Amino acid sequence: MIKLSVVFLTLTNSQELYNMTLKCLNSLRESESNIVFEIIAIESNKEYFQSNYKYPEFVNVIVPDSDFNFHKYLNIGIKESTGDYIALCNNDLIFHENWFSEILKVAEINNSILSFSPAGNSQYNSLDLFEIGYKVRTHIMGWCLVVNKKIFNKIGLLDETFDFYYADNDYAMTLKSKNIKHAIVFNSKVEHLEKRSTEKSEQDKKEFLHKYKIPLYLHKKEHEWVFNNEKSLSGFLKYHNKWGNPDWLYKKNKLADIFLKCNLGYFIRYFL
User: Fold this and answer.
1) DSSP letter at 67?
2) Where is the Glycosyltransferase 2-like domain positioned along the sequence (predicted)?
3) How does pLDDT run across 163-203, given as a tens digit for each residue?
4) Does pTM top 0.90 for this prediction?
């Protein structure tokens, strides 16, 4: 029987958040009848074990000593996992029936695909079971990634430079640069209960902008949104310092897509 390790990032410091996570965990347990789940929660509340909030015994709760870092916390869960597959998940999800079984169907059809995302809330009118691609929020849903554990032999652990913003983008570029296929699976349904973030005031923006040396490519109208949030700006700069400025990266990605279509993905590592 297939074993799936599911790593959740949780913050349990209110009844509302506890209830949301518990609903998520219960929907996961009820979603599959022939899958063995190993459930791991990486908890951000340092006082969790002294609090009144306690998850069921089937949940392995880990409270790291370090401050929250999206990729670092996921890496802790990855190292703890013992499953054939590992799912990296937010705690604001609702898992539908057979969501993982649908991913396994695609994995069996094409064993060269090592990374997957469920279709989420979007409605797809495709006759295909899946679509291979690397676009964030189109193919790669950072709130639920399911990977064959063999993938970490190829990419290593996640880059902990990315503490939140642009973590999904870095993961996408890492897969593409190493010619590892990712697919969105249309019949796999997992709802994401997204919350809207708030923008900072103009004064707040001025207070953090002086910390950064702003590259010339950011002085364009299409990049104005980056300055709404310090963490967003920091993530944006980390991402483009690693993979190239937006204009150059766009050209490299176009070239990479041509190589992938021609089954020459091996050569992408030389220019990404």
Assistant:
1) P
2) 18-113
3) 988 999 999 999 999 999 999 999 999 999 875 444 444 55
4) no
Which structural domains are found in the chain, ordered by start? 3-192 (3.90.550.10), 202-270 (no CATH)
How far, in Å, CA of 89 to CA of 30, rounded? 16
Residue count of the chain: 272
Q: Name the token pair of 214.
A: 């702003």
CB proximity list for 174: less than 8 A, separation 6 or greater:
155, 159
> How many whole angstroms separate alpha carbon 53 and alpha carbon 13?
8
What kind and span of H or E run contains 168?
A: helix 167-177
The C-alpha angle 90, 6, 65, rounded to 5 degrees, equals 70
pLDDT tens profile 68-107? 999 999 999 999 999 999 999 999 999 999 999 999 999 9
Taking alpha carbons only, the member of 28, 172, 17 closest to residue 87 is 28
**What is the distance between the alpha carbons of residues 88 and 149, in angstroms, rounded to a whole number?**
11
